[in-house]
Design brief:
Layout lengths: L20 H8 L6 E4 L3 H9 L5 E5 L5 H15 L5 H5 L6 E5 L4 H13 L2 E5 L8 H4 L7 E3 L3 H5 L4 E4 L11 H7 L7 H6 L5 E4 L11 H4 L6 H21 L4
Parallel strand pairs: 1-2, 3-4, 3-6, 4-5, 6-7
Helix pairs in contact: 1-2, 3-11
């Protein structure tokens, strides 16, 4: 797109020397046109954005992963939408059922947000102790999601079945405990068979075959994970263009 990138880690900036996030935002935003932040705490990103002179993109936090969900929605439209583009392409999202199987993590919370905005339903199934938090997601009611104790029930009639790794970044110390807790939440052929015959499978990658998803599913005909991965690039190009120009195309 003709731009250039400045990549900063905590060690590369004054944040590593205890500079307040607000001060870093005031300085960095005077030198760039956009900021994308991947961090752990959503609150830090929001503090940065509140003091930035330029748009701030959430690249990932513990609570949310909006860029990934944008790519997932685009991938679904690409496979199940109409061919003439525009508003009609997104019509396929309204009324669809997304089955979320696994951890009630940042991906799950962002699926709930998308469902509330775009008019579809998320069937959520997580092990006990790893549930979604509607308060964190900022969901105003329960109309956009249903909770199922049995992941098979969550998949019944779904248009899309999706999952994520059992242990997200920052939770590595819980890995063994999570493997035991999530043993029954591996998306397998039986779960996909319970979904609609034309259901798609998605995963934000990287995936652990044999843990959160069966190899036969991620490599199967219903899987669109490679299109999904490519679409991260296309959707984020569109997002940057929109934030810089106020339009796309």
């Amino acid at each position: 797109m003709g731009g250039s990138v400045v990549h900063l880690t905590t060690g590369d900036s004054q944040l590593g020397r205890a500079e307040p996030v607000e001060d870093s935002a005031r300085v960095i935003s005077r030198m760039v046109d956009l900021v994308m932040i991947r961090t752990f705490e959503q609150a830090k990103l929001e503090r940065f954005a509140a003091h930035s002179r330029v748009p701030v993109i959430n690249g990932l936090t513990n609570e949310f992963h909006p860029c990934q969900i944008l790519a997932d929605l685009f991938t679904y439209i690409e496979h199940r939408g109409t061919q003439d583009g525009g508003a009609k392409a997104a019509d396929c999202l309204r009324g669809m059922v997304v089955a979320w199987v696994g951890d009630g993590n940042n991906m799950a919370h962002t699926w709930l947000q998308a469902a509330e905005i775009l008019g579809f339903t998320v069937h959520v199934s997580t092990p006990g102790g790893y549930e979604i938090d509607p308060v964190v997601a900022g969901i105003s009611g329960t109309h956009c999601y249903k909770v199922f104790a049995d992941p098979m029930d969550a998949c019944r009639g779904a248009h899309l079945v999706t999952t994520d790794v059992w242990t997200s970044m920052g939770y590595e110390a819980e890995n063994e405990a999570r493997k035991q807790a999530f043993a029954d939440w591996c998306v397998d052929r039986e779960m996909m068979a319970a979904a609609r015959p034309d259901a798609l499978f998605m995963h934000c990658l990287p995936a652990h075959r044999g843990e959160e998803v069966e190899a036969e599913v991620i490599d199967g005909t219903q899987s669109v994970v490679w299109d999904e991965a490519e679409n991260r690039m296309h959707v984020q190009k569109a997002l940057m263009e929109y934030l810089l120009l106020g339009r796309i195309g």
